[in-house]
Every structure is written in structure tokens, then in C-alpha cells.
Amino acid sequence: MFSGGGDTSSTALEWAMSELIKNPRVMEKAQKEVRQVFDDIGTVPDETNLQDLKFLKLVIKETLRLHPSLAVIPRECRKRCEVHGYDIDVKSRVLINAWAIGRDPIYWNEAEKFYPERFIDVSADFKGSSFEFIPFGAGKRMCPGMSFAIANIEFTLAQMLYHFD
Ligand code: HEM
Known about the structure:
Elements lengths: L1 H21 L1 H17 L13 H13 L5 E5 L4 E3 L2 E3 L4 E5 H5 L15 H4 L24 H18 L2
Antiparallel strand pairs: 1-4, 2-3
The protein binds protoporphyrin IX containing FE (HEM).
């Protein structure tokens, strides 16, 4: 729980800040939203108004697409099958490359570009049913800390964008 919960969230946060610094347009837009939302209600960011930070949510999604904290997700094969011409035996260990899937040009336009707005038009979500976007994994063993992680990242990022230039 501690290793799964701590490092993953801080890694995502570091990547979000890194991408924002490299993309001043996105930084400005995200910062404007945070400051507008919280100045309008006359308070510094707290968890009650996170749902109003629509663009910040897109920034976090785009960060997790390009930089999933766990790049590969392990599975063990339960039933013999064939994938792209390869026979996968029972008990084989398979590593699913979430990092590569998130950058696959078959699924993503300008896949390497940090462009949070892409998620306005794309219905893909990280809740485990869009297999082209699996930063929290999928299926029975997907991350049980997802909602907590997202709330934590949103809250911390909002605080930083609000208080610092
Ligand atoms: C950005 C933050 C996080 C990311 C990207 C992340 C990602 C993942 C991924 C990819 C898995 C494997 C899922 C699979 O096998 O399908 C996983 C498992 C897990 N995560 Fe997270 N995680 C995050 C935050 C957290 C937090 C905050 C907690 C707990 C407080 C947590 C607890 C766990 C646990 C206990 C598992 C193992 C679940 C199992 O094997 O049944 N994670 N996480």
C-alpha cells in the first residue's frame, strides 16, 4: 500500500509539473482556471471545489497517458492463447506495456505531443474500460487507490498552480 501509493502519485505530480513547465500555453491555461475558480469563491484551493477544475483534470489525464507511473503491468496467463502469432502458454508471465500503448499512434493523434484538450473529444478514461489508456491497469487487479490518487494529485497540483508562478 505504501510503495504502491506514495511513489506513484509523486511521480505523476513531478511529470505534470515537468510537462507544464515545458508547455507554457498549457501552464497558463491551467493556472488561470485554478485562480479563477478559487478567487471567484473567495478561498484558497480546498478539496470541495476540485470538480470545477475541468482543465486541470485533462492535464492530469494527459500526464498519465504519456507518463504512466507503472510503465509495465504484469499478468500471468491462465489459458493458452495466441497473440499476434505468438503462442502464450499457461503460467507465462506477460508484461503489458502501458507506456507504449499510451503513445501508440494507432490510437492517439500526434501521440508524443502534450495536448490535454485531446480528451475533450476522446471518450477514453482511465477507469479500466478503455484499453488504449490504462495508467491504473484494468480488470480485477486494477489499482484500488485510483480515486484517492486522483484527488491527491488534483489537490496538490491546484495548490502549487494557485500559489506559485
Ligand atoms: C497516480 C497514482 C497511481 C498510479 C498511476 C497507480 C497505478 C497502479 C497500477 C498500474 C497498478 C496495477 C494494476 C493492474 O495490475 O491492473 C496498481 C496497483 C495497485 N495500486 Fe496503484 N496507482 C496509483 C496510486 C495508488 C494509491 C494512492 C494507492 C493506495 C493508497 C495504490 C494502491 C495500489 C495497490 C494496493 C495495488 C495492487 C492491487 C492488486 O494487485 O490487487 N495505488 N496501481
